[in-house]
Specification:
- The structure is a single chain.
- The chain is an all-alpha fold.
- The chain is built from seven helices and no strands.
- The longest helix is centred in the first third of the chain and has 28 residues.
Length: about 180
């Protein structure tokens, strides 16, 4: 049987662990993003309306914003509460991150590069740029590849990733304060 190079270098078990940690990170990041958007829902939907140059109905944007936030909170919570990953939840996550990548790419092409996207609510500033597209595409790649591995959600992975994300958001907040 032929094994890809990463199987040979790291072994199947290590790849399962590596992808489990990566998926847990993506899930926590998605959950935090949804929760932070809940606290600034009106700001998020109005910012999206501004980014789209007032060309889409505001009521439709509010509905889509609500739906997006619901998915960002619901999918990770169902996975974390059951500690199991289902095919439908990974598919929804894959479609969501693909949509994010395409949406940010379109915004860059219509001239919105450098503007704030409110991806993490108004508390954590995040700009529209190619780095954001690359990060979303990396998430799409990880989610796509994870269908081949035995992904398990472990409480230790959740704790490790949560501590890492808290540290990341803390550093990002400090950098944003210095930039003002």
């Amino acid at each position: 049987m032929f094994y890809p190079l990463y199987y040979i270098l790291l072994g199947v078990e290590y790849m399962d662990i590596l992808f489990s940690i990566a998926i847990t990170y993506i899930l926590i990041q998605t959950l935090v993003s949804g929760i932070l958007k809940i606290y600034s829902f009106s700001h998020f939907s109005l910012n999206t309306y501004e980014l789209l140059n007032h060309k889409v109905n505001l009521k439709l944007i509010k509905f889509c914003s609500f739906l997006l936030i619901f998915i960002e909170v619901f999918v990770p919570l169902t996975i974390f509460l059951s500690l199991k990953i289902s095919m439908w939840s990974m598919t929804i996550l894959l479609l969501m991150y693909t949509f994010f990548s395409l949406f940010v790419t379109v915004l860059i092409f219509i001239g919105k590069k450098g503007q704030e996207c409110d991806c993490f609510g108004k508390r954590l500033t995040s700009n529209i740029n190619w780095t954001k597209v690359s990060m979303n595409m990396l998430s799409v790649l990880i989610i796509s590849c994870s269908f081949k591995f035995d992904i398990t959600i472990n409480v230790y992975y959740i704790i490790i990733n949560s501590v890492f994300l808290c540290f990341y958001f803390y550093i990002k907040t400090i950098i944003n304060r210095k930039g003002r």
